[in-house]
Design brief:
Chain A has 198 residues and is an alpha+beta fold. Chain A contains six helices and five strands; from the N terminus they run ααααββαββαβ. The radius of gyration of chain B is 28 Å and the shape is elongated. The chains are: A alpha+beta (198), B alpha+beta (201). Chain A: This is Alkaline shock response membrane anchor protein AmaP.
Chain lengths: 198, 201
């Protein structure tokens, strides 16, 4: 699985949804404008929005049921779309490789995280480090949020994370690969700099 | 600065391209807020409509929405009424805004840094980029303070100095900021322009 697949998939879904709703609105608005300008004939332009033929059509017995059904389906789809926005891709538990006995071991993600965060927190230039396990418990990925000093060598920090901390975490979780997203932000160096040996 | 290890393990162009594409897509704006707002509006409208219709069918209509007034209006208004035309134009405009939100990639809060590794995506916040480049400009001898504006294609640096004659200070500032930028190695390399302002001591 490529890095951040879940997040990218939901982002793509959002854009498709917005494009669909936007297209419907544009078509409806354009059709209404066209009718008003007489592009469909002079008769429809002067007629009422909901004239006699439409009212007769609405009087048919099955119309309310269809309207209710469509409205419910649309509402449920939109509700699902809403709920997906609130979901984060963080995962709470990791599933370790099943042993020969066939059972699975589950480990809370916090254990792996805190060791990793501590290791990175000691690197030169790193003020704060937060890590989250993402994507899935079986095929986990990592999201790292770092705060660096603004005179820190950002490039060196992430290379070091890749070479050391990421590799350590990967082997300790017994994984073949551990894709990661690193987000760095910066802040002014502290007034009383910590004595750094590394 | 690349280490010997990095230089020896330079991957093929296909992997580099894939790494860049994955990274850029990861940090693209997700449009969560527009999606939330549009979704909430649709739930409200469709939900109310369903409630009204079902309650009317059952026999005890809720009458939350002004259905009678709406029906009267729809019966009397015409397609070529100005109010109808304005409303349709507004509707179409909102639709265009939504379509553009969907199609336009957007800037995003994060500057993507080059890693050449599809399994590792690194981003630097926009404020962080500004701070790093400002710090680089301030490291030049003679510069008292600097302000940096980071754009898509250009980085504008305005350095302040108390020196009387700056000499090649603009070039030095430009080189310092460019050096820091090269170190960070973003996927999109903006050009650096440096300007020096002479301040009173």
């Amino acid at each position: 699985m490529t890095v951040g697949k879940r997040a990218r998939r939901s982002a793509r879904g959002n854009r498709w949804g917005l494009a669909l709703v936007g297209l419907l609105l544009v078509l409806a608005g354009a059709a209404a404008l066209a009718t008003g300008w007489g592009l469909f004939g002079v008769g429809p332009a002067r007629s009422a929005l909901v004239g006699a033929p439409i009212v007769d059509g609405l009087r048919r017995p099955w119309v309310p049921y269809v309207v209710a059904a469509v409205a419910i389906v649309v509402a449920l789809l939109a509700l699902r779309w809403l709920v997906v926005q609130g979901r984060t891709d963080t995962v709470g538990r990791l599933r370790m490789d099943p042993g020969d006995e066939g059972g699975t071991t589950e480990m809370p993600a916090g254990v792996a995280r805190s060791v990793f965060e501590e290791e990175i927190g000691d690197y030169a230039g790193v003020r704060r480090a937060r890590a989250h396990i993402t994507e899935s418990g079986v095929d986990p990925q990592l999201r790292v949020d770092l705060t660096l000093n603004d005179d820190a060598d950002a490039s060196a920090v992430w290379r070091r994370i890749r070479a050391e901390a990421l590799d350590d975490l990967r082997t300790s979780l017994e994984l073949e690969r551990l894709p990661a997203v690193i987000r760095m932000s910066m802040t002014a160096p502290p007034r009383n700099p910590r004595r750094e040996l590394v | 600065m690349t280490t010997v290890e990095d230089a020896l393990t330079r991957p093929d162009p296909a992997t580099t391209r894939r790494a860049r594409r994955v990274a850029v897509h990861t940090f693209r704006p997700r449009r969560s807020w527009p999606a939330f707002i549009v979704g909430a509006l649709i739930v409200a409208v469709a939900g109310l409509a369903a409630a009204e219709v079902i309650s009317t069918l059952v026999g005890s209509p809720l009458r939350i929405l002004p259905v009678d007034k709406a029906a009267d209006y729809a019966g009397s208004a015409r397609w070529n009424d100005p109010s109808v035309q304005v409303a349709s134009a507004v509707l179409a405009l909102i639709g265009l805004v939504l379509i553009s939100l969907a199609l336009v990639p957007g800037r995003g809060r994060w500057t993507v840094l080059r890693t050449d590794d599809p399994a590792l995506v690194v981003g630097l916040s926009r404020a962080g980029m500004r701070r790093a480049l400002t710090a680089a400009a301030c490291e030049v001898d003679g510069v008292r303070g600097a302000s940096v504006r980071v754009g898509r294609r250009r980085v504008k640096v305005r350095a302040e100095t108390v020196l009387r004659h700056a000499g090649d200070l603009p070039a030095q500032v430009r080189a310092a900021v460019q050096g820091r930028l090269d170190e960070l190695d973003p996927v999109r390399k903006p050009k650096v322009r440096a300007q020096v302002r002479y301040a009173k001591a």
